Amino acid sequence: MFIYKLFIDIIPFLLLGYFIGKIRPSASEKISQSLIKFGIPISVMGLLLKAGISIDLIHSAVLAFITIAFFIIIINSAAPLKSILPNYSLQLAGLIGNTSFLGIPIAIALLPTDTINFTIGFDLGTTMFSWIFGPYLLQTANANNTFLNIKKLLLSIFNSPASRGIIGVLIIYLFGLENIMENFLWIPARFVIYLAIIAVGARLGLIIKSKKMIYEFKDNIKYSLLLKLFILPGFIYTMCRVFNYQELETTALVLQAGTPSAISTILLAEAYKKHRELAAKTLLKTTIVSIATIPLIFLVINY
Predict the structure, then answer these.
(1) Can you tell me the distance from the alpha carbon of 84 to that of 91, in angstroms, rounded to the nearest whole number?
(2) What is the Cα gyration radius of the chain?
(3) Could you tell me which residues come within 8 angstroms of residue 39 by beta carbon, excluding any fewer than 6 positions away?
(4) What is the distance between the alpha carbons of residues 106 and 4, in angstroms, rounded to a whole number?
(5) Of 20, 48, 85, 175, which is least packed with CB atoms within 10 Å of its CB?
């Protein structure tokens, strides 16, 4: 299923973006800025309305959100970890997974439908963290400020794409339009993802100069890859055991944790002009390696 999704739903749009990037080098930045301003709020609204609100969704969303926050704090508090993951682009690439476009379809294909709220909840938690705190972290890096600035943090949360999406959903629920808007917003929400993949391809079109680059793991990318595809899934598996999640629920959450780096990491890097090539290379290489690691994770948990 993963390989099918890769070749049918991702590679064609990556290739389209790749050639657009070759022709118009500024395309990825312009697309990313438009997505952050308009597309991501629509995507968040579509996801929330489609999933509905349940206790399982809330539990898995909180687990994902707190886990990412925990790792960000630990990495930036420990000098040895900070030295191998020195910037927020690498850190976010190692913690934010492509749960929307790969994780959810994979889980739907492999697991019973009653685990869907765990799957979507984890996706929601990672989405909220990346679009609430991602802009703040990268803006902080641009300004060379301290790690925590309460005023800027609150402003970032209020103005973030995810917060605008949440506010939109609350307004829809307030007027009792959720049943009408659910399907109406789900279509543009999926379109946003395809457009985001084109933006990724446009960035890759600027950085891929040879096949050799695909196999190089410079700029500490290997540490981000190790964190994303091995350490994070292992941590989530441990937490699931600690909180006595059932086997299927554990599988759903660990599969989400083991997805490759998210498209949002490139969109953020493009919008705030921070380590754009690094984010693109990390996404490319985690996606390639995850072709092997995702089936392996599923087999290890279930056998």
Answers:
(1) 10
(2) 18
(3) 192, 195, 196
(4) 10
(5) 175
To 10 degrees, what angle do helices 178-207 and 27-34 make? 160
Residue 92 has pLDDT above 80, yes or no: yes
Q: Do residues 164 and 132 touch, judged by C-beta distance below 8 A?
A: no
pTM: 0.73
3-state SS, residue 30:
helix
Model pLDDT, residue 142 = 53
- Contact assessment for residue 162 and residue 131, using Cβ atoms and an 8 Å cutoff: yes
Q: How far apart are the first and last CA of the chain?
A: 19
Give tens-digit pLDDT for 197-241. 787 677 667 666 544 455 555 668 889 999 999 999 999 999 999
| 119-140 as b/e: b if 16+ CB within 10 A | bbbbbbbbbbbbbbbbbbbbbb
* Helix (H/G/I), strand (E/B), else coil: 262: coil
Tokens 């909840």 found at: 121
Question: Is 60 exceeded by the pLDDT of residue 64?
Answer: yes
Question: Is 7 a residue whose pLDDT tops 80?
Answer: no
Of the candidates 281, 261, 277, the residue with the CA atom closest to the CA atom of residue 134: 261
Give the residue extent of every domain in the chain.
2-302
Which residue shows structure tokens 């938690």?
Answer: 125
The pair of structure tokens assigned to 155 is 């402003």
Neighbouring CB atoms inside 10 A of 279's CB total 30
Model confidence band, residue 260 (pLDDT cutoffs 50, 70, 90)? confident
Highest-confidence segment of 48-52, 55-59, 227-231, 295-299: 227-231
In the DSSP assignment, the letter for residue 150 is H
Spatial CA neighbour of 67 closest among 268, 225, 256: 256
Whether residue 302 contacts residue 14, with contact meaning beta carbons closer than 8 Å, is answered with no
Sequential DSSP letters for 68-110: HHHHHHHHHH-HHHHHHS-SHHHHHHTT-B-IIIIIHHHHHHH
What is residue 291's predicted lDDT score, i.e. its pLDDT?
77
Element containing residue 40 per DSSP (H, E): helix 40-51
